[in-house]
């Protein structure tokens, strides 16, 4: 049986890809990227989940959850945030040059 | 003994040293990058001599593998790292021509790009590979938008969107592998890949393949390439074709051969490679803008490398690696020459460049680079194409070989047209300055040297057969 949180995270990825493909507004596309990123992070953290387990701290009796996905997901979140910040700053640059964030209009604007 | 981690630590150190030096003198920051990349190229060369006998494993932070992060350098990884750092050094001379401020941040990002690409080649840990991929991507996104004009911003935006989707897929693939095998060490994964559920295995492979395909300019994921190469500053276009693209394709080779030792799934890779070749070469033929033409040609060349990896015989993979080296040198040369031609003609259209390359300091290297990319015998590009062709021939892929040759003819056609225009009798001849012609001549010498005396490269490429069967 596939646990329901796997389905939830995969559907977040699919929703994110749909937004990136279907939307014409740059900010919405960036939001879509973020949703996609969140979905994969959720999948990664749920891979290490063990039922009724605690965080792996010394002197706390087990069973423990797998700590490696937690370390990985922290890294992935930090990377995701920096990419989002960069994407938004590029979107600001585009807005300053063209005065719009709609993809259809950007192509028509002369610099 | 050279520890491979130094190749990553030094650029990082110099990258964050450059703002401090920039407070004192901006001019010295430019020389600092030349020094840093030269040091890195030297270290990579020494590392190459060292790994010749057996692969080097460098354990980071004292945690033993498979739990700790380990750098895994075989002869092939070492030679790709060496070529990446050598080309980075040569391009950093051309960086002296960049006049737009802020030069300090530019230098910093350039060193981070070098560091990320080197790290992608050297690492032996799957998640570490993802981190280096992201370092490379973030540096590339910022450098692509460095000119701060509409062209640059739009190219960078496209790159951010496609690149983020790609890295999300890489992370998805890593998650799937971890959920099944509970390890991230590449050799450990390779040893236990047989115990994976076959469906999860195929989904994980496809995710990683698509994810690294973005950096490797593979067919459906390469629409960012022409816009980014066109919008970026000239040295950065040269660097993009040689550093992150080669690191991406080497990561792809690691995924295909070191981790998943697929034997019956490679036709998929061959078809993707063939589609990439056709997409790149046919559109390159129709381009009037020089940098876009070179960008599409770069896509075509990367497709040939992917095909060589996909055919999967020792000879074809040797060809793919040879092609990587030849393309890194040749495309860097052509983009630097393109930078000069655009500056001289004050236009990026090929038809405006009549006679601009008649100065021998530019003309002769340009001709050598173009002939090498076409695959003419005395130059570096010949062996790569020839080995890929022979590898396909021995496997009996006659239809694929015929299509490959057809695409090569298209390539010869548009390069010949370009060469004819730039060597026509024009009105004026502009003399290049030293920061332009020194890198051109260095790259041309390397191309001729590798073409005329391929023995050292072939000696390294002997290790391909061990690489295919799942070695470092």
CATH topology heading of chain A: Helix Hairpins
The counted number of beta strands of chain A is 0
**Helix content estimate of chain A:** over 70%
Physical arrangement of strands within the biggest beta sheet of chain B: 1-2
Total of DSSP H or I helical runs spanning 4+ residues of chain A: 4
Low-confidence stretches of chain B: none
Main β-sheet of chain B, in a few words?
2 strands, antiparallel
Summarize this structure briefly.
Chain A is mainly alpha-helical. In chain A, about 70% of the residues lie in helices and about 0% in strands. Chain A is elongated, with a radius of gyration of 19 Å.
Walk me through the structure:
Chain A has helices at residues 4-22, 26-47, 67-98, 103-108. By secondary structure, chain A is an all-alpha fold. The model of chain A has no long low-confidence stretch (mean pLDDT 88). Chain B is mainly α. Chain B has a two-stranded antiparallel ribbon with strand order 1-2. Classes of the chains: A mainly alpha (111), B mainly alpha (472). Chain A binds chain B through residues 13, 16-17, 20, 26, 29, 33, 36-37, 40-41, 43-44, 47, 66, 68-69, 72, 75-76, 79, 82-83, 86-87, 90-91, 93-94, 97-98, 106, 109, 111, and chain B through 127, 130-131, 134, 137-138, 141-142, 145, 148-150, 153-154, 156-157, 160-161, 164-165, 167-168, 171-172, 174-175, 178-179, 182, 184.
